[in-house]
Amino acid sequence: FWLNLRKDKFKDPNVRKALGLMFDFEWTNRTLFYGAYKRSDSFFSNSELAATGVPQGDELALLTPFKAQLPAELFTQVYTLDKTKGDGRVRKQQRQAISLLKQAGWTLKSGKMVDANDKQLSVEFLVYSPSFERIIQPFRKNLQRIGIASEIRIVDVSQYVNRLNNFDFDIFTLTQAQSLSPGNEQLSMWGSEFANVPGTLNRIGLQDPVVDALVSEVINATDRKNLVTATKALDRVLLWKNLVIPQWHISSYRVAYWQQIQRPEKLPKYGLAIDSWWQKDNASNTGN
């Protein structure tokens, strides 16, 4: 779930984190997906580019000059997403979310989360597939429990794209594919200069000098080691900003194949490479 940072209500990271706490992935995965997925906890999930642990070595050296502009926890704590028991009860997360919203200037009054002018906090989920309703509706119920109003806006694909391109949304759902060798495309995704350019990949409107500097480090990396270091640092900073409410991924292929079909012992790490499979030579084979 990507949030439009151009909207005043999403500018405070405490608000963004509070919203994220109300998405019960564990319940969703168990109840709707039969445990098939893993929670995505990186913008480069399932790769060597994902930030892990606390920053050390070259990554720490790269991030240290920006220490005053970054959360202190980034240097001492591992970034983690809150986990529920998967039973649909999120009372602990509700308390945490209400506390975060209070820090951001919101107040729970008569069952509604309101600002200083008594205007209720509300969000709209923009989707183009009705099938996503079953995922968002439980999320909405959790938001309602802490006084946040919400609605789902289902539009056709062309209108969906137009609304994204013109920043006419609160929250939208989209998979942002990444390269194993990130480069110039990161500037369009995160760069401040693209934040208000219609049609940009920086759909959320992020404008941050530290991110800009780290994107430059990624683009200008002189070797693989430096590229991995810079990307991990970028990933870590993006995560700690709580820019999105992470969804899920699967780190394998679902494939059924006939026992006569053989495949290489060593397969590409991220590819099925089905064009390298072959039919087993068998004397009883009729030649089909």
What's the average pLDDT? 93
Largest sheet: 4 strands, mixed
Secondary structure: number of strands: 10
Distance between the termini: 48 Å
For the CA atoms, what is the radius of gyration?
22 Å
Low-confidence stretches: none
Question: What share of residues are in beta strands?
Answer: 5-15%
Tally of separate helices: 10
* Helix vs. strand class: alpha/beta
Q: Can you list the strand order of the major beta sheet? A: 1-7-5-6
The secondary-structure element order is EHHEHHHEEEHEHEHHHEEE
- Dominant shape: globular
Work out the helicity level: 25-40%
Write structural notes for this entry.
The protein is 33% helix and 10% strand. It has a four-stranded mixed beta sheet with strand order 1-7-5-6, covered by helices on one side. Strands 2-8 form a two-stranded antiparallel ribbon. Strands 3-4 form a two-stranded antiparallel sheet. It has helices at residues 13-21, 25-31, 57-63, 73-76, 91-103, 133-145, 157-165, 185-190, 209-219, 224-240, and strands spanning 2-3, 38-39, 107-109, 112-114, 122-127, 149-154, 171-172, 248-249, 261-262, 278-279. It has ten helices and ten strands. α1 runs antiparallel to α5 (91-103). The longest helix has 17 residues, at 224-240. The protein is globular. With 288 residues, the chain is an alpha/beta fold.
